[in-house]
Design goal:
Layout lengths: L7 E9 L4 E3 L21 E6 L6 H10 L6 E2 L4 E6 L5 E4 L5 E4 L17 H20 L7 E3 L5 E6 L2 E7 L8 E4 L13 H9 L4 H21 L2 E2 L7 E5 L7 E4 L6 E3 H7 L13 E2 L3 H25 L5 H19 L1 H12 L3 E5 L1 H7 L2 H4 L8 E5 L10
Parallel strand pairs: 8-14, 15-16
Antiparallel strand pairs: 1-3, 1-4, 1-5, 2-9, 5-6, 6-7, 7-10, 9-10, 11-13, 12-15, 13-14, 17-18
Helix pairs in contact: 4-6, 4-7, 6-7, 6-8, 7-8
Length: 396
């Protein structure tokens, strides 16, 4: 598991070239069949990495389903030392840690139907999402250099969710910076205290609340700006990293996994123009704000803001009402700065709503069939809960 940081080697599968779709230029050092002991396949095959946990029955089933049994050859030699990252299915080569390889795993988390595979359509959508965000930043220069993106335009697949790889490349100028996933902030740090305490000590004069304030200010400015274009990202606390430094420079955000957004097609057309932008998932677009506001609320507000208000209060860093006031105030400022119909929608659906949507992933993924739950997307199936952003809305 990632927390044990084991080092292991990947397996490799040689597939006929005509069966593999490759987007972009595969990374330098990508092995040839001959480098893996399959010299007679150099002219006809290309190799894809396979997580060792997928080798065996799951891989055999994938080859049967794609009709590639007999044509695909699993190399005898493992190659490339890697370590797991925040995600078990995403590994980093020990010799090139700025390159992450996202590999399918034949397992499920958060419910039996929430598979850790890599569907080819999500690779297409990740690249499309990146293009969409780059188009927004071109129109919003204040985010240039402050909101960074991992490059997710290079990938390969053989038309099956267990025969795929994403080659995610992080910006190359972060060696002198401290990069920490938001998901780590409330974790216990070696030697005591929380990770956020140590970050505050180094970058905010020891003031944890000042650090939280800086995160909220940039995060809400960015996400409400996207909402103004009709976009809400599935950018939860595992998909956003905080970038500190070098030295005592401004806080920056680093985003990855840009597939799975929800987009108000009417608002996007009015701001950036129409079209599908190359998305494969037809659930991406909707004509109104509801689906977009649901993702904005459950991801940005709940997971990237509210969770830290409650968590920091639980750890005694500040009283909960103070922290909820901070979340409410920074969100209100960002919404006021946005203005127009988009701001009105966020006031109605988030700031002033009596209830807020809440993810119901376990229900949709395990407890009920899709026929009973009505879930079209396990990650975007909701129930409702009280709005803790209303004055006096936080529990005692």
């Amino acid at each position: 598991a990632p927390e044990f940081h084991p080092e292991f080697r990947l397996q490799w599968l040689a597939l006929p070239r005509e069966s593999v779709t490759v987007a972009g230029q595969l990374p330098d050092g990508w092995p040839t069949p001959s480098a893996l002991g399959l010299a007679d396949l150099d002219r006809t095959h290309v190799v894809l990495p396979v997580h060792p946990s997928t080798v065996g029955a799951p891989l055999d089933a994938a080859l049967r389903e794609t009709g590639l049994v007999g044509a695909a050859v699993l190399a005898d030699w493992p190659y490339l030392d890697v370590v797991p990252t925040l995600s078990m299915r995403t590994v980093a080569p020990t010799a090139a840690p700025s390159l992450h390889l996202k590999l399918p795993l034949a397992t499920s988390t958060l419910g039996l139907r929430n598979k850790r595979s890599v569907k080819p359509g999500t690779l297409v959508d990740g690249a499309a999402g990146q293009r969409l965000l780059e188009a927004v930043i071109d129109r919003e220069p204040r985010f240039q250099g402050r909101v960074l993106h991992a490059d997710e335009t290079v990938y390969a697949h053989a038309g099956h969710e267990l025969l795929a790889v994403l080659c995610r490349r992080y910006p190359g100028d972060l060696d002198a910076a401290v990069v920490v996933p938001m998901a780590a902030l409330l974790a216990e740090a070696p030697g005591g205290g929380l990770v956020v305490d140590h970050l505050a000590a180094h970058h905010h004069g020891g003031d944890v609340i000042a650090l939280f304030d800086a995160v909220l200010t940039l995060l809400f400015d960015w996400q409400t700006t996207l909402f103004g274009y009709g976009i809400a990202l599935e950018s939860h606390q595992q998909n956003i990293s905080l970038v500190f430094g070098p030295a005592h420079g401004e806080l920056r955000l680093l985003l990855k996994d840009n597939d799975g957004p929800r987009v108000n097609s009417t608002r996007l057309t009015a701001t950036l123009g129409g079209g599908t932008w190359g998305f494969d998932d037809d659930r991406t677009f909707a004509p109104g704000d509801r689906a977009v506001a649901d993702v904005f609320t459950t991801i940005t507000v709940h997971l990237c803001a509210g969770a830290y208000a409650f968590g920091l209060a639980r750890h005694g860093r500040a009283p909960l009402p103070v922290l909820l006031d901070l979340v409410r105030d920074r969100l209100t400022e960002a919404v006021d700065r946005l203005g127009g119909d988009a701001a009105a929608a966020l006031r109605e659906r988030v700031l002033h709503a009596p209830e807020l949507p809440v993810k119901a992933m376990v229900t949709a993924g395990t407890l009920l069939s899709k026929e009973r739950s009505g879930a079209a997307d396990i990650n975007k199936h909701y129930t409702t809960g009280p709005n803790y952003l209303l004055r006096g809305g936080g529990p005692a």
